[in-house]
Amino acid sequence: MSSNQPVKKPIEILFSYAREDEKLRDELEKGLSVLKRQNRIVCWHDRQISGGDPWEQAISSHLDTADIILLLVSRAFIASDYSNRVEVRYALERHEKGEVRVISVILRQCDWHDEPFAKLQALPRDARPVTDWSNLDNALYDVVSGIKKVVVELEKGQ
To answer: What CATH superfamily is the domain 11-157?
Structure first.
């Protein structure tokens, strides 16, 4: 059976994070597995860059094509010159033009309230850091639910 429905391209999600937070990034990505399996999203992060590939070019390319950019916020993320100088700045420029949705995910308690992305609604609920929740699964479920809402909004606009 063929359908005349146009094939929707999956929403591309880019993770911007500090290496110290890689385990939490992995857990969050696992939480998005259903959306990935349904081919509604594809996820990308720098660990997918192949050996020998120019990493700055790969990151820049995905910053250009992402539909959602997740800023995984922690002290290490804020301390990273590259994350803030390149990734956050460019993500917010695209966000202000309406080209991408930038979502801050507060992983750990840190001083993020004066950062340029502080004006955007953060996840989890009430911007309570993921690591402050008594149950990590509940925190990640809250974050995934928030991301899923944005995915649905973007799908409606396709």
So the answer is: Toll/interleukin-1 receptor homology (TIR) domain (3.40.50.10140)
